[in-house]
Design a protein that fits this description.
Blueprint: E1 15-16, E2 19-20, E3 40-43, E4 46-49, H1 55-60, H2 84-92
């Protein structure tokens, strides 16, 4: 259903005919780590995440998996798991 509380006009999973069913009756504003994310949007009542109702929980265990402003750390040399049998055959040639 369409949100009628803080993110008016946007679809919300927690909204039903009785109102917002999320913890506390409405979504929570973004935290400092969310600044710069494309999913954060300004509303008259504050800045809220369009994907998750409580952004602070997403940042408790590390980086938010929905954050668009963070780049994944990777050196580009990792090819994944290599079969040891195939690796030994490659070294033999």
């Amino acid at each position: 259903m369409v949100c009628q509380t803080v993110r008016q006009g946007f679809e919300c999973f927690f909204m039903n005919k009785k109102g917002c069913q999320f913890n506390g009756g409405s979504c929570h504003p973004i935290v400092e780590q969310c600044n710069g994310c494309q999913r954060a949007m300004e509303f008259p009542t504050g800045t809220y995440c369009l994907s998750f109702p409580d952004p602070a929980i997403k940042w408790q265990a590390g980086n938010c998996n929905l954050a668009t402003h963070l780049k994944k750390a990777g050196n580009g040399t990792s090819r994944g798991k290599l079969n040891p049998l195939k690796a030994s055959k490659r070294r033999a040639h």
